[in-house]
Protein 1
Amino acid sequence: MSYVAAKVAVLKMTKIVVLSGGVGGARFTRGLLALSDRIPPRGNAIDVTVIANTGDDMWLNGLRICPDLDTIMYTLGGGINDEQGWGRIEETRRTSDEIRAYGRGWDWFTLGDLDLATHIVRTDLLHEGASLSEVTSYLCQRWNPGVALLPMSDQPAETHVRLAKQADEHAAGDLIHFEEWWVRYRATIAVSSFVQVGIESAKPAPGVIQAILNADAIIIPPSNPVVSIGTILAIPGIREALQATSAKIVGVSPIIAGSTLRGMAAQCLAVIGTDASASAVATLYGARSHGGILDGFLLDPADAAELTKLSEAGIPARSVPLIMADTAATADIAASALALAGVQISAAPPTTFNFPAHSAAASGALADGVKP
């Protein structure tokens, strides 16, 4: 039997994993997905898995609230209130007002009526015995976020803060939920440490370790390095998987010119005794060659003077604009991160196959994309 050589442009799936907190990670991932519009025909398709922080999860009014999972799901699914960065668009709060009228709930943490529907469905499914991973998959069937959205763990590992002094009804030394410190007190009261309650018994959610080990690139977006990314890394087994994967791991600085554009990462860094600078965040993660997790890091041109520090720390770094002004600008950041990870989103080179001379390939049935 004779054969003819044919070159077939084969669609390759580029597997990208994103470790994400809430707003910053969600907006970065939206830009990452927008790269699909720049991929030429027969180019590399993007297959994205987002591993989300669940340290902010909590119970409120008998409902299980998962702030970061929901922010990612709403952002990628087109339902987010972009102006505030969290919650649903065109939201109302009649139910929360009624709950307050009964003297229940927290005045400082208001749930919108549309958002409540998500929490009710999640809680109902959890009470029926579904895992958080299964519930998240179910909720995403409605929102179709375009990614595989995975919680970091199915077991609760809630982030709390230990108060350094009395605050209202809380005594010095008490643990309060991170969200209370963050939302009620706007991170303005002194705390001595962060404590992930339940972290010792938590396990990576199904699919998390496999996604990390099978990835072509892993991106740490501009999420809070202490209570978002740091909490994910604290789940037993995740840091080890990151150190073992063959994929390059690239971080994107959440700090520009000594401050955060959104959120309170600077306050969290201060609690652990770390400067609010791009290089400090990178060295907090550490170079993988020195026992850390980074193979590369992006910082803003405003911090270009810190490139030398990163080089000395063994972390290859590049300076590119990091302000996520819109989706197009964010897509540029994502492309730079992938490039630093050694992944180019471009047309896949043709792959050579040998077909029998009398096969469909030779007869022209596969003429589209087959060039003898």
Protein 2
Amino acid sequence: MTERDAFFTPSKRYVVIKYGGHLMEGGDTAFSKQIVSLYKQDILPIIVHGGGPEITQMLTRLDIPSEFIDGLRKTTEESLEIIQMVLCGIINKRLANSLTLEGASAVGISGTDASLIVAERMSHELGFVGRPVDVNTAVLETILKGNVIPVIAPISADLVGQSYNINADAVAAFIAGALQISLFILTDVAGVRDANGEIRDSLNEFLAQKFYDERIIKDGMYPKVQACLSALKLGAKEAFILDGRVPKNLHRFLIDNDHYIGTKISLD
């Protein structure tokens, strides 16, 4: 038995769930109800959220332009302050409160709290966009031991305190890999499509690269697929991109062992 196995309570199942994007536009109630239904059946999730559309709305309101490179938002010093405000100050607390109102115990934190996520600059081209390089698993373990759902905003900092905007998919992947548990990325599409527009039940690393080279996988789907592959390489148990618009899609997979709508990502 590994040290990680010794921490986890045998009667519970632990998973990382990424939630964000256009799924949030209808409010958090449906998502919270789905999560709480899992919570009440001893599935304890770690939730990492994004908030791209709300960030874009706020930046537009303040007349700050948005630019994307391979699905990632270029982040200037000016926009970083707004992104932090939206992710940490608005969405994070709203989601934690929604889960609590539905009957779970949830706490909203960010990657900067207790150095939960240590980051480094991803590239000068993207500005203050970071990548996770370390995770303080002891913080998550302390929260989970209390049967509390961690709700994580993907803002973090490096070792000298510089803050970074991190893609939420990448944060979710890094945590799933560190804890060696399953990753579920919820999105507003049915899954990864092939050249004929058909949803693939599964996709391996070779085909993912081929689809990217042929521009079949592009825009926001690219970082999601890359995050799943990264999670698996870091030690995650399994990785999926699921249609978050389908009611009880997570429930189908985790509770009913029934057919789900989405794509399983694998290394081979």
Protein 3
Amino acid sequence: MPNTTTVISLVGTKGGVGKTTLAANISGLLADLGFRVLAIDADVQQALSQFLPPAADVQSGFSDVLARGGLILDRDIVPTNIVGLDMIVSNLAEHSQAWLKDREDRLVMLKRAVRQPIVRDTYDFVVIDSQGAKGAIQSTVAMAADLIVSPFPPRMMDYEVFIRDTLEMLSGLNSMSDISSELRTGPLSIVINGENRTNHSKAISTQVREQFRTTPGIRVIDTALPWLTAYSDCRLMQQPVHRINQAASMLMHEVIYELLPNLKGMRATDKSVAASVRGES
């Protein structure tokens, strides 16, 4: 059975909402489920590259992939300290955004890159972290995705900006989808992230669920991630959170089940199931 690679892009219109932490934890959990995962750090701040540090010398990175027009070479990919999880690190500079904006193929560059045999024939999942700002890099990351994931912290100060910018982003990216299916993003799943026990936080969570209840192509998943110190601890330990905290592990499994329903019931210790999902003997 041919390998089908699923591309998951972490996208948000502002920083500090938890994209990198969620990207690292999705990547690490999928790898520990037994899948082959490629993480791509497309953030100029290089946060994912620090969260999941490479376990070998880095020769090149995401900036080099862009400079080649989306061509990925063996030397761009390095292993991490998690078995089954490789990475293309970020070596972006501040001018990378402006450079990419001038490319006519900017929207499809990364989509083209992750469809190459070096990715498609090797990995079950690609997880891409992006910067928390509007721009050409975020657009190419979103357009590459089979599934866009956007974390949302339930705070009133973020609510209106999140709603407006999320809808504007998807509308802008899909404005030419009638011309070509290549110019269409995958659906968006919103993950409520950092919910606390206050009535305010719960009210905002309820409000954003109602806002998108009937919006085509957008859903808010049922599992909300509460505020836990384990998420900051896992960054310091450079380990996915399911390895260090039981409560967080249960929640991350539920997030994976909602994002990828065909994985429902798999646990991180059951790698034989992953092989059967891939169609291997």
